[in-house]
Amino acid sequence: MSKLFKQDVNNALENANLAGALTRFSEAYVLSRAKAYEGIDFEALRTRIADIKGYAAGHFGDLADEFTKNAEAKGAKVFRTNSPEKVRDYILNLAKELGVTRVVKSKSMASEEIHLNAHLEKNGISVRETDLGEWIIQLAGQKPSHMVMPAIHLSKEEVADIFSKETHEQQSSEIPRLVKVARNDMRTKFLEADMGISGANMAVAETGTIVLVTNEGNGRMVTTLPKIHVALIGIEKLIPKFADVAPILKALPRSATGQLLTSYVTMITGPVPNTDGSMKDLHIILMDNRRTEMAEDPKFKQALQCIRCASCLNVCPVFRLVGGHVFGHVYTGGIGTILTAWFSEMKKSEEIQGLCIQCGRCREVCPAKIDIPGLIVEIRRNLVKEEGQSLAQKAIYSVVNNRRLFHGMLRAASVAQRPFAKEGFIRHLPLFLSDMAEFRSLPAVAAVPFRDRVKDIKQPAAKEKAAFFTGCLIDFAYPEIGEAVIKVLNKAGILVVFPDDQTCCGAPAHYSGAFDVAAQNAVDNIKALAGADVKYVVSACPTCTAFLKYEFISNLENQGMHQHLAAARLLSEKTMDFSSFIKRLVDEGRLTLREGAEAGKITYHDSCHLKRTLKVSAEPRELLRQSGHEISEMFESDMCCGMGGSYSLKNPEISSHILKRKLENIKKTGAACVATDCPACVLQIRGGFDKEGSGISVKHTAELLAGTLE
Amino acid sequence: MFNTFKAKAEAVSSEVHRFSTKDEALGFILGLLSREGIRDSPQYYALWADCPFLKGIDKKRIAGKFPGLRFEVTRESAAVAKIGISQMDWALADTGTLVQDATAIDKRLVSTLPEIHVALIETSKLLPDMESVLIRMSPKEASYISMITGPSRTADIERVLTIGVHGPVRVVIVCVDAMGGTA
Hints:
The complex is a heterodimer. Chain A is α/β, with parallel strands linked by helices. Chain A folds into 4 domains: 1-36 and 310-387, no CATH class; 57-291, NagB/RpiA/CoA transferase-like (Rossmann fold, 3-Layer(aba) Sandwich), CATH 3.40.50.10420; 403-587, Glutathione S-transferase Yfyf (Class Pi), Chain A, domain 2 (Up-down Bundle), CATH 1.20.1050; 600-708, Rossmann fold. Chain A has 35 helices and 20 strands. Chain A is elongated and about 95 Å long. By secondary structure, chain B is α/β, with parallel strands linked by helices. Chain B has one domain: Rossmann fold, CATH 3.40.50. Helices cover 27% and strands 31% of the residues of chain B. Chain B has 6 helices and 12 strands. Chain B has helices at 2-11, 22-35, 59-65, 75-79, 105-112, 130-134, and strands at residues 14-21, 45-48, 69-70, 81-87, 90-92, 97-101, 116-122, 126-127, 144-148, 153-154, 162-163, 170-178. In chain B, the strands form 3 sheets. A 6-stranded parallel beta sheet of chain B has the order 1-12-7-4-2-3, sandwiched between helices. In chain B, strands 8-5-6-9 form a 4-stranded mixed beta sheet. In chain B, strand 2 (45-48), helix 3 (59-65) and strand 3 (69-70) form a beta-alpha-beta unit. At the A-B interface, helix 2, helix 8, helix 10, helix 11 and helix 12 of A face helix 5, helix 6, strand 9 and strand 10 of B.
């Protein structure tokens, strides 16, 4: 991360206005979105949208032809180009030719993408943004901080100052008053303008129709009052059929603002009469700007399914802290990172891609079913391919890929840290050979790792065997979690084996874009686990579980290592996360937890990979209740804790802000203990509480269950 | 379906009134003109775009009563009108939405520029949802399909919902059961 970018991020983090407004909104958004979708089968709806838009992305050429034919038959003029420069020239030439001096615009992100305003103004044409937020931004000379709410980072007092300057009159900061100022000022501009420029939310090939979705009513003014209407549309807005409008209209307002429908939806097909009886001069520009190229990329094609609702921004734990400005481009947040890489350049996404913590919340709410976190990792992979890994990263991965060396170094670290270790926590010491941030305490590297301790555990004889995949954290930092896992499984009559050759699951390499390293980790682990003759493979780390279950296969596939796929699939079928496995054993009557006993009030933190990749959230809660714990739910229990593996090393400031919120939400429950199924979340949250000195304990579910067994 | 429509429309700040006859609806609208102080002076005009509802109504007689009420809609008069009246083609129950083929300029002007938009709708034109209207309307025939769900709104400053940015501040929906009745 460059110093400049880091400074941008830190400035944003310190901007209380921005973080306050975005956070309040993101908290309210989750509720209003859920309410708006009541009674709607979201999965079915988004599958339909993904189908429509996915098909369109595969047929841009044909759809653009069809759209052009139908719109021109109705009297519109359609201009298609790949080049932003040609778009700017077309509009400027048209304006010059027709003597246009005043332009009113309703929101068009495509126009922002090509910096149209600056180009027109440089040539003596006045351009007025008419969307309230866009106008505020225009007056302030700033960039939008959010795709749907461009001025969300400004307070009403700041807006009042901006308006006072513009109107040469002191304006009060009362919001309805400010809106009225905008209404009055804008009215004359609408009536005087020679040309209206709009974007469009959809362009229907079958009918040559453009669809505009707005709330303020400026879109209707812009398309009604001036005699010339220019609609500037990215070709990804093309959809095949008129009937395809309905599902997108159902999702867009619900996902964008939690509305059932926006105040206005306008569908324009060809020119309509002007106020003087003449017909509108309607120009539709279909802009490509690398979209066709993107559609030809088998991975990134899906990003063109985006309907620009910005829900990926609204649910993002990082976006709500830093806002849109740090993205440095018109498209912001998760999807913005991807679009910037293409519409601007890959290089520009180099820094912003690092903001993604891979929590997966955006993938869950995306109405177009885009795997946003997956594509961001794909960007990382491209960057690694193009520019190689940093020397430090290379050194780490060469170690990780050599299990003996890797584990040897971890053992060495346990010795080196000894004088500093204090109650199991160390400060200023390397974990995984890297400097860690100081906002939380760190666990000591265990003096005796789990792989050694396991040999001394006396297990009762049992008919069934399960292999235990610990992952690095349980093995080298939290062996006691591993012991708890064994205790619970033994109680259910299962013998636990620990295949010695198991090593890092590959998540750190994968999330940094080093897929080849991750694939090699997969091969090593498949071999290590294939040696054990077991029915199940259990892991108490959701990230490891997700890798054993899904990512081993995907990384072997994308590295062309097909010879290992059969074994990877077999392993995938055997693999279960700890809580799901225990729940099954309880349901089968093989294990009884201490039902009815009182073990006290706790709260539960959902780890990202357990909740959203493995889709497990009810199981651990049920087990904890059965073992006598009363669960007091925290606010946003499934919001990331800020760990994200190596993310917390690369972005300590962001990580610590996210953690702070998590700690507050835990404390508000009044519980003395928080449970989670992820050892990395344990590290982050326990480290945070230790640093604070609050006495709240952080436990893995396995530890709590083991604690209530006889 | 009417109850759902009313609830959804009111939830987005539309006002909904239902009348069994055209006479009653007209009476209500004239009452509104009177309450809003409609007179022959800028900022106090009411503009009524041509529509089926007006069939059989003695426009001269009511215009005589309200000198500010005009049936000729121009850009200039719309810019300074307080009330715009038009008839909608369909209404959608599940979102409280009004739908109109607004290709004719007068229809667009009266629902865009004035502060208050009075939207007439025949109760029988109520449809359940968006899908139902999209199969009944074709962009081949309707060049400018306008869907209106409540008054103009924004939340662009501090996320505070504020009604009436560029378009109407009030949307008054007048449902008429028997549109055929004489006035």
